[in-house]
Known about the structure:
Elements: H1 3-6, H2 11-24, H3 28-33, H4 50-59, H5 63-74
Amino acid sequence: MNTEVTHGLSPYDKFRDDTAMKFFGRSLTLAQAINQCVSCGKSAGTFKDERYKREYQISGLCDACQDEVFKDFDEPEA
């Protein structure tokens, strides 16, 4: 990983960045700095609501990627 990107990050933020690199091949820090989705690389754009915005701040996932990741959690149980 580029040490210029991770220099000065807290251990927690460095862990998040390292994890994003392993899963998505992108730096979470850089993706969020340019408002880009860490998963698909598209612009994170605007968010459907505050919940999506908060999740982007945590995971770096755009609305569409959040919908895909969490689709099974939002469906009511039968």
